[in-house]
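Can't paste images in this forum, so I'm doing it all in text. The chain is below; anyone willing to post the predicted structure tokens underneath?
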Amino acid sequence: MKKLKTKTFITIASLFTIFLVLILSIYNIQNYNQEYNHVKENLNRMFKPEPDRKDNRGGNPDLENRFVFDYDIYTVILDKDNNIFDIISHSFEQSDFDAKNIASNIIKNNDEDSIKINNLYFKGYSYNYKNGEYIVILNTANIASRLDRILINSIIIFIILEIIILIVTKFITDWLVKPAIDSFNKQKDFIADASHELKTPLAVIMASTDTLKSDIKDNKYLDNIANESDRMNKLIKNLLDLSKLESETTIKSYEINDLSKIVTKSALTFEGIAFENELEINTNIKEDIKFKCNSDEISELLGILLDNAIKHSNKTKPIEVNLNTQKDKIILEVINTGDEIKEEDLEKIFERFYRIDKARNRKENRYGLGLAIAKSIVINHGGSIKATSNNKVTTFRVVFKK
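Text version of the structure:
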């Protein structure tokens, strides 16, 4: 349910965020394009050369009387040798913009007529250069300030609205996921209640079967009842364990333990079972790894993984149990050589009641709950579990945070 809730939250929040980013981006792009077009328009219309500049160097009253609001524009008059003849400012306010020096650089770096509009987000200039006639220079410092102000305001608006989006998304997620959570909780309660209710009649059946078996020898029907009762007892125990783990009631009992000793003890416990199956268990366990956990649950986790490894191993290579640290992580691995797990089954094996070989699992009294219990234990301890299977080598890798 946590995964479903997280995915729903991320999906909704991402959609809102993408929409918000799109709107603010469009707004900033429109403002930039508007400024760009104004710059281009002013560079093109500011100067109209006189019909005969050869005989008239007394100035251009029409040009000198042109003023532009909100823009710092200069017209640099050139003679035919590209020498600066006059500089006319078209702004109402004087600035420290060095039009003469900039005009000299433009002349120096350009051999042909050119119009250049630089990035308006940076304080610089744009120009329209007509070789041997004029240069219209537009100081973009004020434009950069306006665009920066719009961008900063957009960022502030984004932060405020993103906080609102996260709050609203949480309420929407809770509302959407609530029916699924309620259904899941009812399912868990039903399984737990049914398992508890079945324990008493099952205990009576098992006790009665044992009594009858002592009176009636070699009765196949009583043997069948005893075997099926054992299977049902194991199933009920697994269901109750899984229900308890999924309720997360055991998390409160976690305390700092020596994980190295717990893993070593669990591996030693299974050495006898492995020996009966003509297998060995090799351990590579780093000493003195401390971890906040429930020691019984960690032992159960190791038991499930080792039992699974023994059941699916061939006798060519030993089972390996590794426990090491890597930076801020604790890594536990159980590796066996034998039956290879298909790619499509690697994720499904951790689902409840999922069995790859149903006939074999029924014969061995296996219900597909062991790995589901193992996953719940790992998740409750803030870790992750993953299975890989290549070249008949299967590895169950558990990663805990220190």
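Residues 49-58, 359-363 have pLDDT under 50 and may be disordered. The longest helix spans residues 141-215.
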